[in-house]
Records
---
Amino acid sequence: MCGIIGYVGHREAAPVLLQGLKRLEYRGYDSAGVAIFNGGGIEVRRSVGKLSNLEQLLRDDPLHGSVGMGHTRWATHGRPSEANAHPHRAGKVVVIHNGIIENYLDLRHELSAKGRTFSSETDTEVISHLIDEYIIGGMTFMQATRAALQRLQGAFSIVAECESEPGKILTAKNATPIVIGLGEGENFVASDVPALLEYTRKVIFLDDGEMAEITREGVSLSTFQGEPITREPRHITWDALTAQKGGYKHFLLKEIHEQPQAIIDTMRGRLLVNEGDVSLGEIEQHAEVLDAIKRITLVACGTAWHSCLVGKFFLEELARIPVEVDYGSEFRYRRSPISPDTLVLAVSQSGETADTLAALEGGKAGGARTMAICNVVDSSIPRKADMTIYTHAGPEMSVASTKAFTTQVTALYLLAVHLGRRRGVLDQVTSRKLIEDLVNLPNQVREVLSKDKLIEKIAKKYGHARDFLYLGRGVNYPIALEGALKLKEISYIHAEGYPAGEMKHGPIALIDEQMPVVVLLPKDPVYSKTLSNMKEVEARGGRIIVVTDAPSPELEEIAWEVIPIPTTNYLLMPILVTIPLQLLAYHIAVYRGTDVDQPRNLAKSVTVE
Ligand code: AGP
């Protein structure tokens, strides 16, 4: 997600802003910029790429002044470019923003009709124009900002400056974090604590629907509607590195806990709840092409390949389209029969995985239509695909993929509903229920995350094991694979995921008291079959850890450990079932003392064969 820093005080603003942005670099970004009052007006400097480019720009063409703001952009709308970099100016107003404005196109059309012209592809720029429009209409900067905030739908935290009211910056928070730093004769605002720690540990966190006017003399808080707010400052004790992890011990744990918000951000602006439909604006221009598709080949690697195995169930059951799933490294060398009615869909967090990219290119060369599901805007795979659906998980810093996985599954679910409705094979009543279940999912994920202490206890009991077996059926078989991959890649324990029905065809020979067996047992159409497999394991002394939305005395009898989770429709259960497995892998890795965020031999993005 984007990085925000703002400053009002007695120092030169430029160095403070650059230092603050450097402390936020870990969040990932593709461009950066600053806006500083230089006595006469506000001047803006922006650059693509690393912060060093912005630093060079400011060396070549310095900006002096003690009021300013800075931003590092993680692109969500509009490719990485100088024109799309923040801050965005309109008339007297300059704005930086973190989040997604869902109704920006409507606002853009409304403002264009008033003669406004836009210089970027971003959703952010409409905020600058809205505030400026209200100021021209006679409002003060604060009044205009409040009026503009009332028009915005979506996730937004903003910092704004206005040339007609120097010496202050305004900030507002809705969904994405804003923290205010309190100094002596100087005050700060940022998207995250690390940007402030050089200067102050005295902070105030804004809540959703709150804003602040910041001057060097002080900070006044209010609601968007103007109700005054008083809030006691907090004292931050974290060191800078801990602060980058939001207070969590590892990025991996932070990202596991970010999944409710990541799922919300990935479905944001795409749900038509009343119509029981999904709007995917980014692919709608290819509607006729998609209507002609008769077969889908999903290609990916690692965890992304597991999300494809889940996606196969979604697309076949909801959109009635035959789907095959292949590793990127396999598909690229296969001579698969491809035609224009084939869609090759590449799924990738980084958008840079060499085998997945090569598979997509091979499909395209063979005449297939191509699509990407990706978490990094304008990376290699989306640039090569005919169309892209972006997940909005934000930067994933830990090598082990967690929030990228659950948002990939979310995106595949959205695509399946969209295609099913478009093809007339998914009725509105069913679809509305599928969408309502998705809307409820983030809170259910939070409920599973609340089992963290139980799972940590289980991890300590079984963390010494040398082998693990994970069993799942149907749409949860891919989660058995994912749970095994998470464990092996961060704890270095050998682990295998298997279809539960395959037990008798070999793996049952492995069962003994030394090997924990994780069984995924949602109350779904194959529950009784998987329960039978559990009993086969138990009869041979296996130590079962069961993940289920249907705990019972019978299960307590058979399993050594029971991890209860909430229930949802059987197609979405894989997301809820995955969370305990991520936490189990994490706590076992911590127990074994491995390098949780940077496991040995692994890279975050495998950009070579
Ligand atoms: C999963 O935890 C690993 N980090 C790895 O398997 C990863 O999923 C795979 O390399 C694919 O990466 P991508 O999603 O960036 O294409």
Note: The radius of gyration is 25 Å.
---
Amino acid sequence: MATALITGASQGIGECIAKRLAKDGFDIAVNHYPSDGDKAKAEAVAEACRALGVKAEIFAADVSKFDQCADMVKEVKDTFGSLDALVNNAGITKDTLLTLMSEEQYDQVIAVNQKSVFNMMKPAIKVMMKQKHGAIVNMASVAGLYGNPGQINYAASKAAIIGMTMTAAKEVGARNIRVNAVAPGLIKTPMTDVLTDEQKSKIFERIALKRFGEVEEIASVVAFLLSDSASYITGQTIEISGGLEM
Ligand code: NAD
């Protein structure tokens, strides 16, 4: 049985990806931020995956911390016997205009969204190289492709993920490991619940499909990129935004 590790899987897009990959037959490693609230939510996600007939366990780690990521990858490998798919999904926003943003707001978003991808890919790729196969999907954003006012930190982190995805894909392609990214537009999750109606309607006007995205619409593309159906796709960033920018 193949194993998939999803970071930040206690809610939102990560939760949906975990359940979708369980449906596809992966054993699931549900990463959650080390807090009681996230642990309880992650346990419910793992339980939902088990109900689909696969193994599922929860793993606490703050993905901005290098050592915690290395320990988690080792624990997942020890628990399930392999690590075949990794989804670097965990992310945060600390939005405000560039001139108002504190250094702390900038650094926190870079650490959680961007450095985490290095923290996770390094140990995971080592495992995948030994296995001689593996697939990774990194969570970028349309903000990393086109920019977004109030998100200089977030846009920087997501643009970097696109560059990291291409670089890792080039480094490990010969080892039968594929690395891709997805760039969602506005998807209905707790992260976007906090946007004001004015912010939402400004984005809405630009969406060709005239609706916001559902978490399932991200999970299905991630599942495709991790599957053999995408066996000749690597280094790519797939935009999933209902036609936000063209
Ligand atoms: P969310 O806030 O609902 O979920 C984020 C998850 O990441 C949570 O489970 C949270 O606990 C976890 N997390 C945060 N910091 C962490 C840390 N240091 N260590 C481990 N876990 C941590 O957000 P979401 O909308 O589901 O977003 C998921 C991903 O998709 C993020 O990377 C986000 O940037 C990206 N994204 C979302 C949208 C959208 O419209 N919702 C659009 C583009 C990209």
Note: The mean pLDDT is 97.
